[in-house]
Amino acid sequence: MGEPWRGVRGEAGAISRNNRFAIEVIGDPASEGGVSSASEAAGRVTVGGSSESFPMDLSFWTVGDYSRSWERALRELEASKYSTSCLISSITDPETVNFIFCWPIYRERGDVYVQNSIIFLDDLEEQFNPQEPWCYVEARSLVDEDGRRVSEWSTTTSQVRRFRESIGGQ
User: Fold this and answer.
1) Using 50, 70 and 90 to split pLDDT, how confident is the model at 13?
2) CB-based burial of residue 145 (10 Å sphere; 0-12 exposed, 13-18 middle, 19+ buried)?
3) Which positions ≥6 away from 132 have C-beta within 8 Å?
4) Is the sign of the CA dihedral 126, 66, 89, 93 positive or negative?
5) Average pLDDT in the 121-139 region?
6) CA distances from 126 to 84, 121, 135, 136, 142 (A)
7) pLDDT tens column, 83-120
8) What are the structural domains, with CATH classification, of the chain?
9) What does the alpha-carbon distance between residue 42 and residue 63 come to, in Å, rounded to a whole number?
10) Phi-psi category of 9—alpha, beta or left, where left has phi over 0 and alpha has psi -120 to 50?
């Protein structure tokens, strides 16, 4: 059986297409006839009516490591009505690189906002802990340092919870 996050789309029952949420592995070289030492997989995040695919480096984490990290991140988001979490989309060894690709997620009561970002490790005041990436996410901002509007998707906490529960995370 494949990873529990593979192919789950969060579309069970009568979920509105405008509010759905999912993060999934859509291409794992090891499970698709590739070799187990393949260095990259593909993932997809779906928020509302939008989806975006992303490469997942497998030199530091396995597909299973990403899946476990995503489940922890979604649980962190549910911990408070106002919380920040982070879905790592691609990570290599933090000891040898300067950046981590991620999807910061911000909860404000019943609403969840998702942005695409990069965590620059040289800018951190402490060593990066990949088990708690939300500790390094900046506060939600609607504009970047140049004054341009930040691309952001939104959904609801109930859709995020429904997705997490659908993949077996009670």
Assistant:
1) very low
2) exposed
3) none
4) positive
5) 96
6) 18, 9, 10, 9, 26
7) 999 999 999 999 999 999 999 999 999 999 999 999 99
8) 21-166 (3.30.2450.20)
9) 10
10) alpha
For the beta sheet containing 50-57, the strands, ordered from the edge strand earlier in sequence to the opposite edge, are 21-27, 40-47, 50-57
Residues 81-110: b if buried by 16+ CB within 10 A, e if exposed: eebbbbbbbbbbebeeeeebbbbbbbbeee
Measure the N-to-C terminal CA separation of the chain; round to a whole number of Å: 20
Contact 30, 10 (CB under 8 A): no
Residues in Cβ contact with 83 at an 8 Å cutoff, skipping those fewer than 6 apart: 76, 77, 106, 107
Contacts of 122 (CB under 8 A, 6+ apart): 98
pLDDT in tens, 34-90: 444 478 999 999 999 899 999 999 999 999 999 999 999 999 999 999 999 999 999
pLDDT score recorded for residue 140: 97
**pTM recorded for the entire structure:** 0.82
CB 153 within 8 A of CB 49: no
